[in-house]
Design a protein that fits this description.
Layout: H1 2-14, E1 35-39, E2 43-44, H2 51-65, E3 68-70, H3 73-82, H4 93-103, E4 107-123, E5 126-141, E6 146-159, H5 162-184, E7 188-195, E8 198-201, E9 214-220, E10 224-225, E11 231-233, E12 236-247, E13 252-259, E14 268-272, E15 277-286, E16 293-300, E17 305-312, E18 318-327, E19 332-341, E20 347-361, E21 365-384, E22 395-397, E23 403-405, E24 409-428, E25 433-444, E26 453-457, E27 463-465, E28 473-474, E29 486-496
Parallel strand pairs: 1-3, 1-4, 2-4
Antiparallel strand pairs: 4-5, 5-6, 7-8, 7-14, 8-13, 9-12, 9-14, 10-11, 12-13, 15-18, 15-29, 16-17, 16-28, 18-19, 19-20, 20-21, 21-24, 22-23, 24-25, 24-26, 25-29, 26-27
Helix pairs in contact: 2-5
Length: about 500
């Protein structure tokens, strides 16, 4: 145990964070005013009359982002009428640019609903509807007539009615659309000031900033030029990452969440758009103990007594693998995990859990406190059948008079429930990856007489359960208790999306 802990700690201490990037992207400029955007009615190729509903939802998403002004629908209708275009008709890039110029817009969003289906089925509480929707969304720069992005968006949902399922599917699709829009139209700001309260950013509610938004601090290097003095590229260094903590009218206050150098007023900021998801894959070192013993099960049918004996193997703490995923939120992060404990030829186990986390994010080190609710299901081979008490026979008797050959495997399965309080220390190697150390104490119920299920096969290869009395009376012992509680250590690689 001590060697394992020392190995984990030494690995974490030997890794240093790397946050330097080398980019050729164009120079970031401060976005201090909202851009004007026109949203064209989505074309509905499904024939389900979804155009207005989808268009309204897209407009609401853009308004809620707070970084755009939307061209009024009345003005758009007037121009479309003058151009003899229907509000529900398809708008190609050329038409979008032409009308956008007439409206004075800078950007345009258009799209086509390509798929919609809804199916009726049965759920736990009765009728359950499932719906799927697909669309193609196009983002267009009106000034350059460039198609910035064309993406396929899908959403799915369920509900007790078709209408509820459709709304859930639309909501799922809107989340993807919002992500695409933020990725395409990233906020590019500057650091206004740095005080004891934090880092002041040159935007707030006026550009739709929200608590939890993240920004990369970018510092330019000297431009790389050719022999004629033409700029080929501009090297950029990512100095730090900021996370917005407070949002005011025209300013916001952020904290440094990752850093490799000093930041200063005037440094450029580029929005870092993520889903706020983290994925974990790693190794567990955990308690998993059962003592060796010789077990004899005895059945009495009122006349004769029958014995079935086997030698139970011992087990001790072992290694396992696990996978986890969590959604970053404020103030608590929610996650789920699944893992497997290796038992070799002994007992193995699968495990699932749900957890909540309160986290403090630092520049390089993040610390979290977790509470986990888990279910462990153990299974495997305990041993083999020994000779029964029938003189000279190489078999034993089962609880219902079944003949069981000597050497037949005896299998067992059982479950344990419990909670695990734990603490996290995450080393942020970059904006998108890190190493996480988690130490906790598992408070699980043991797998004992009340939760073991023990099976074997009779001489006809039919599976039988040894713990049911059937026509005879079970008077024997069961296997030793499997303890799964105690100190738990895991080390994992973290990927952030």
């Amino acid at each position: 145990m001590n060697r394992c802990i020392m190995f984990v700690l030494s690995m974490l201490l030997c890794v240093s964070p790397v946050l330097t990037v080398y980019a050729t992207a164009e120079e970031a400029t401060e976005l201090s005013t909202k851009e004007s955007v026109v949203v064209y009615p989505f074309n509905d190729s499904t024939g389900k009359s979804l155009s207005q509903a989808v268009t309204d939802l897209v407009i609401n998403k853009i308004i809620n982002l707070g970084r755009f002004t939307i061209v009024e629908r009345e003005k758009l209708q007037k121009i479309l009428a003058e151009q003899q275009l229907a509000m529900s008709g398809a708008v190609d890039e050329n038409t979008a640019v032409k009308i956008g110029q007439l409206l004075g817009a800078k950007k345009a969003i258009a799209g086509t609903i390509t798929v919609y289906d809804a199916t009726k089925g049965e759920g736990d509480d009765g009728v359950k509807w499932s719906a799927n929707i697909g669309m193609v969304v196009r983002l267009i720069d009106i000034e350059t007539a460039e198609l910035l992005k064309s993406s396929e968006v899908r959403g799915s949902g369920s509900g007790k009615t078709e209408g509820a399922a459709k709304q859930a599917a639309l909501s799922s699709a809107m989340t993807s659309i919002e992500y695409d829009i933020r990725k395409m139209f990233k906020l590019k700001l500057k650091i206004a000031n740095i005080t004891d309260k934090g880092v002041y950013i040159t935007a707030g509610n006026n550009l739709g900033l929200k608590k939890g938004y993240k920004f990369d601090v970018i510092r330019r290097g000297e431009p790389i030029k050719d022999s004629e003095g033409n700029i080929l590229e501009i090297p950029k260094e990512k100095v730090a990452t900021l996370k917005v903590e407070q949002v005011h009218g025209n300013t916001s206050i952020a904290k440094v969440s990752a850093s490799k150098g000093e930041i200063k007023p005037g440094d450029m900021l580029e929005e870092w758009v993520t889903f706020g998801l983290r994925a974990y894959v790693g190794l567990n070192y955990l308690p998993f103990q059962m003592t060796a013993s010789t077990v004899t099960m005895t059945w009495f049918d009122g006349v004769d007594t029958y014995d079935l004996g086997f030698t139970q193997k011992a087990m001790s703490s072992t290694l396992g693998v696990f996978f986890g995923a969590e959604k970053e939120a404020d103030p608590f992060t929610a996650g789920m995990r699944a893992g497997f404990v290796f038992g070799g030829e002994k007992i193995s186990a699968g495990e699932v859990g749900l957890y909540g986390k309160a986290e403090l994010t630092g520049q390089v080190i993040s610390v979290g406190a977790n509470i986990d609710l888990g279910l462990l299901y153990a299974f495997g081979t305990l041993g083999t059948v020994g000779k029964g008490n029938v003189s000279g026979a190489n078999f034993a008797w089962g609880p219902k008079g079944e003949k069981i050959n000597e050497g037949t495997a005896i299998n067992a399965a059982g479950y344990a429930l419990g909670i695990t309080p734990s603490a996290d220390v995450r080393l942020n190697l970059s904006d998108t990856s890190g190493i996480n150390l988690n130490v906790g104490y598992r408070l699980y119920s043991p797998i004992d007489t009340n939760s073991w299920s023990i099976m074997t096969k009779d001489s006809d290869d039919k599976e039988i359960e040894l713990v049911t009395s059937g026509t005879k009376t079970l008077r024997g012992a069961r296997p030793s208790t499997l303890n799964t509680g105690g100190l738990v250590i895991n080390v994992s690689w973290v990927m952030m999306f």
